[in-house]
# Entry
Amino acid sequence: MEYLEFRNVGKAFPGVVALDGVSFTARAGKVVALLGENGAGKSTLLKILSADIKADTGKVVLSGKELSFSSTAQAINAGISVIYQERQLIPAMSVMENVFIGELPVKNGLVDFNRLFLDTKAIIDKFGLPIDPEATVMSLPVAYQQMVEIMKAYRRDCLVIAFDEPTAPLTDTEIDILFNIIRQLKEAGKIIIYVSHRIREIFQITDEIAVLKDGRLVKTLTTPETDQQELISAMVGRDIGDTYASLDRNGEPGSVVLEVDNLCTDAVDNVSFTLRAGEIVGFAGLVGAGRTEVARAIFGADRILSGEIRLGGGSVRFKTPRDAIKAGIALCPEDRKEQGLVLWASIRDNICMPVLHKLKKLIFLDGAAQDRLTQAAVEKYSIRTPSLWKRALELSGGNQQKVILGRWTSDEVATRVLILDEPTKGIDIGTKAEIYQLVCDFAKRGVGVIFISSELTEVINVADRIIVMHNGHITGEVARQDATEEKVLSLAMLS
# Structure
């Protein structure tokens, strides 16, 4: 039987030990979960597997043969494919070109676009997705871009396939499609490694679990023989209790702070709702429903065709996000890599960015004030970093998300409306619980919160009421006490 083995793998970066003697085995026909908090070492282990970085110590062995690659291309050619949570696609190229990149079919010395279209269409149909093979990747929603990444790995027919948070941008419908593909890969004898912070998924799709904490392997488990509490205790080292029941919520919301009346853009039509000070309004819906587009229009990032937005009773129409920020509206975007962060800038620069005008001493920036603001955010969100000057690019996905939250939720930012688009994407369960409470804390301070999430359980339990969208329209509204996954999903699937 084919197997993949990590033997005493270690890796250190300046100021951080990412992996410390990790050893475990993944076997063919099995799905092995890698579980752990942000910074536990999961993504680092996958980068070593794909030859993106080199281990300092230890070996990676595939069916008795030690792996040694000088490039990721060599790893792919040897049958190893890693699908990272940050997509590795060429946005301006078509779906079919991305899926077959490196192996485009050729006829008479030219690319055979007819065969390329048909071969890609066959994979798309197998996935059951409404994607045009000729569409450019940049024109697709984030979730479909993720599915293109997965189709690219599926097409390679590799022996080892590793998924790093593959469902982070997906809704339940897309997750079901992905899981069906993974089950087919499993039946075909592939070695599958699955990284996810979603505990429910771990029980749905995996056979074994390797738990990492602070770069060390702390426990290996057989999935059917464990339970959620054991996993959480092993992962975070403490009992976080009932995450939702223990939330300290705001009592009674205040007056209306935001009114959206018949909002129309290129993506949404006649969207109307209100948001009160101290209220958390959730937005649910399937991919393409228009939730993100509503947020972007309010924030001044997308063009409004018609309709009215009122903030504190006064009509506003923001031409740019800068105007929205000045008015007290903050947005944590869905795609942290492309829209949320300046990746080459430091944690300090990213967090202080919206309030630099408040951090001046005469005509110069007050470095000490910047340090205090950044350090407060690092401690508040438990951002794992050896330095405030570490580049955002070098952080794990979850820690990048924490930097964005730290930017908009400091005391220096006079936020009236906080829009959170998939705020817990790629974040471990322990930190999720902290973020849920932070969201409730902001509501208690009188901030109106728009909470967009593809996790139905999350949006139902965090929001005070849930607005459901489908195909650019609002199809219904449900109060938290009346909400069920079935009720929300039925509204999300209305034609």
In short: DSSP finds 17 helices and 24 strands in the chain. The mean pLDDT is 89. The chain has two domains: 3-236, 256-492.
